[in-house]
Structure formats: structure tokens, C-alpha cells
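Q: Please design a sequence for this.
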């Protein structure tokens, strides 16, 4: 069985905080490295002390730099100071929520997103990000409601419809899920998350031709999308395309998808 997929953390950073090139996709749960050498922390802390006279926006920019580098803990330190300087800085609360989310501190992430919404209820990003926390908790109705609110504020953002589509699918509202994935693809034809998840629905409803088309489109856009190669291999095997299935599974295995090795050994006899 295939599972629905969305790269929550990458979207939070790329879409709203920094223009970072998205690397290889993993499973819906993303592991973030958090170990740092003590000497590095000392240097960072010193820089924080030196910059104590900076503005809230200056600390916000420093936090962006740290998030760009994958240093969520260090970003939180800068964001604490940004909020100390300006307790009404909604962007700082939203960004700190994203940093906490990366650290899997979902309780604090939720609190920060809610505070950002209280300060600026017309910004769609905290609703969009809060939906990710609710998805982690399997609160699909809550996630759907947050995505709907985000879509009302910012109706031309493809990622909102991908996330809402996954929520609909989890609630077994399949036509609504398909409609949202279609909407995401119409807004951004290269939205691989929408292609993958729509392909997943087609696979589960045994529309293998449509599933194959979506998985193929996803891997052509992102040649390192291991999970889509795996889905493609499963569909090709169901369609009797054994040679193609073998190649797709080899690609998924090469890219590090955990289940692909066993499938590759089975398909490539």
C-alpha cells in the first residue's frame, strides 16, 4: 500500500522564509540533524550577545540564515530575541513555529502559530503551517479547516491545495481530494507532491493507467523523487510491465527508498 506524502518542513522553509533549493524527497516524516559542536554553539551565542542591540527584523534575518543552513535550534535563539524586541512581530512567531516544527516540538510550534494568527489573522502562512502540526497529530478535520482558511486568504498557492487534498484523502473524501490535487497542478504543473498523491489515489482505485502517468510525470520533474519511482514500479508491476517495474525499483533503491530493495529483488528475477 502506498501512503500519502508531503514534505512539510521543506515547504515551510522554501515557501516562506528562504529560497532554498529542494533536495531529495524522503518519507512524510523528515529527520533533521540537531547535533552541534559545543564550540560552535559558543561562537553563535557570542554573536547573539554582540548583536543584542539589533532590531527585531535584524534578528529575524539572522534566524532565516540559520534555518537556511538547517540550524533550527540556533534559529530559535535568534527568534526569541526578535520576539523580545517586538512581541507583536507575527512573522517571528510564525518562523519560530516552523523552527520548533523541524525540531519535532509540536506543542511549542502550535502555540507560536496560534500567536501569529492572533497578531495577524490576515496572513495565510500560520494557518498553512498549523495544518502541518494537526496532520502530525492525525487531526485531519482541523488540518482541512486550516487549509481552507489559508486558501481563502491566498487562493493561488498550490501547496495549500496539496495539503488540503491529503487531508480530504485521509477523511476518505476522494472526489474532493482529487479536485484539490487538480487545482494544485493547474496552479503549478511541476507540483510533484500533487502528482504523486493524485497518482496514489488512482492506484488505490485501480486506475493504473492514470497512476502510471502521474508517477512518470513526477519523476520526470524530480529525478530524485525516490518514493515516486517506487510507486511507479508498483503500478508497472500491476500492469504486467515487469522490465519497467524492475528499472523503477532499481532507481528507487539507488535513491535510498527503504522498501525498494526487497521489491527490486522480487521484480528483477
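A: Design:
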Amino acid at each position: 500500500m502506498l501512503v500519502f506524502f508531503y514534505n512539510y518542513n521543506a515547504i515551510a522553509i522554501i515557501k516562506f522564509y528562504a529560497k532554498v533549493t529542494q533536495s531529495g524527497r524522503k518519507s512524510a516524516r523528515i529527520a533533521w540533524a540537531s547535533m552541534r559542536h559545543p564550540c560552535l554553539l559558543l561562537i553563535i551565542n557570542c554573536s547573539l550577545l554582540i548583536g543584542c542591540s539589533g532590531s527585531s527584523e535584524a534578528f529575524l534575518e539572522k534566524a532565516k540564515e540559520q534555518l537556511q543552513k538547517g540550524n533550527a535550534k540556533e534559529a530559535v535563539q535568534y527568534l526569541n530575541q526578535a520576539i523580545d524586541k517586538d512581541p507583536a512581530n507575527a512573522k517571528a512567531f510564525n518562523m519560530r513555529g516552523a523552527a520548533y516544527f523541524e525540531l519535532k516540538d509540536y506543542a511549542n510550534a502550535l502555540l507560536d502559530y496560534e500567536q501569529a494568527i492572533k497578531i495577524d489573522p490576515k496572513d495565510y502562512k500560520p494557518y498553512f503551517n498549523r495544518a502541518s502540526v494537526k496532520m502530525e497529530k492525525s487531526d485531519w478535520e482541523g488540518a482541512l479547516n486550516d487549509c481552507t482558511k489559508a486558501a481563502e486568504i491566498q487562493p493561488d498557492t498550490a501547496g495549500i491545495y496539496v495539503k488540503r487534498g491529503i487531508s480530504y484523502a485521509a477523511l476518505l473524501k476522494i472526489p474532493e481530494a482529487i479536485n484539490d490535487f487538480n487545482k494544485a497542478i493547474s496552479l503549478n504543473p511541476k507540483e510533484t507532491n500533487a502528482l504523486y498523491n493524485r497518482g496514489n489515489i488512482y492506484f488505490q482505485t485501480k486506475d493504473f493507467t492514470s497512476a502510471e502517468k502521474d508517477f512518470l510525470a513526477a519523476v520526470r520533474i524530480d529525478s530524485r523523487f525516490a518514493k515516486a519511482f517506487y510507486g511507479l514500479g508498483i503500478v508497472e508491476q500491476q500492469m504486467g510491465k515487469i522490465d519497467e517495474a524492475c528499472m523503477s525499483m532499481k532507481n528507487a533503491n539507488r535513491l535510498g527508498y527503504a522498501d525498494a530493495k526487497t521489491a527490486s529483488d522480487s521484480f528483477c528475477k
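Q: Thanks. Anything notable?
A: The CA atoms of residues 110 and 130 lie 6 Å apart. Residues 72-85 form the longest helix (14 residues).
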